[in-house]
Every structure is written in structure tokens, then in C-alpha cells.
């Protein structure tokens, strides 16, 4: 699984989401550890706790979290929160 596929799954699974997925460390070729980092921005996160936001991302990735993705670092934001970071 590559970063583009993880982005696609998140964006398809969460309404109006924009996901940026990177590889935060070099993959271990011996173990095929698939470590990803995701920044996800969506108005669907409005009024949700951080745990609920992260659960939405896990739900969007479904079974891939147990088969293709070894670890996922994530940061989730509403558009307003993300704009405040940028500003």
C-alpha cells in the first residue's frame, strides 16, 4: 500500500476530507513495516472529540489497519483549526 492509496481511502471515507499522507521513516525492507503519517482536514470533524476524529480515520481505512498498515501517526483538524495553524 502506498501513500496515495491511503489518502484515497481516507478522502473517500470521510466527507469533504483532504488527506496528506507521508512516510515518516524509511521502511524496514526486511519486515515491510508500513508506517504512515497522515494530516486529515475535514468539516466532518466539527464537534467531535479527538478520539472520535481518529476513529473516523480508522473506520475509513477499515481492514487495511490490520493488514496493510503497521502504524499510522495522525493529526486531524477542522478547516478552521487548520487555517489557524497556517495563519
Please supply descriptive tags for the structure shown above.
alpha+beta, GMP Synthetase, Chain A, domain 3, 87 residues, 4 helices, globular, three-stranded mixed beta sheet
Please outline the helices and strands:
Elements lengths: L2 H11 L4 E5 L12 E7 L8 H12 L2 H4 L3 E7 L1 H8 L1
Parallel strand pairs: 2-3
Antiparallel strand pairs: 1-2
Q: Overview of this structure, please?
A:
The protein has a single domain (3-86), classed as GMP Synthetase, Chain A, domain 3, CATH 3.30.300.90. It is built from four helices and three strands. With 87 residues, it is α+β, with helices and mostly antiparallel strands. A three-stranded mixed β-sheet has the order 1-2-3. Helix content is 40%, strand content 22%.
Write the CATH homologous superfamily: BolA-like
Characterize the overall form. globular
CATH T-level fold name: GMP Synthetase, Chain A, domain 3
Structural category? alpha+beta
**Number of separate strands:** 3
Work out the helicity level.
40-55%
Number of helices: 4
Content of β-strand: 15-25%
Major sheet strand order: 1-2-3
Low-confidence stretches: none
The Rg value, from CA coordinates, equals 13 Å
The helix-strand sequence is HEEHHEH
Amino acid at each position: 500500500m502506498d501513500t496515495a492509496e491511503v489518502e484515497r481511502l481516507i478522502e473517500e471515507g470521510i466527507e469533504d476530507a483532504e488527506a496528506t499522507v507521508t512516510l515518516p521513516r524509511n521502511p524496514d525492507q526486511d519486515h515491510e513495516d508500513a508506517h504512515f503519517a497522515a494530516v486529515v482536514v475535514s468539516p466532518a470533524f466539527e464537534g467531535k472529540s479527538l478520539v472520535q476524529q481518529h476513529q473516523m480515520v480508522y473506520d475509513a481505512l477499515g481492514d487495511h489497519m490490520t493488514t496493510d498498515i503497521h502504524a499510522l501517526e495522525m493529526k486531524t483538524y477542522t478547516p478552521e483549526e487548520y487555517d489557524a495553524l497556517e495563519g
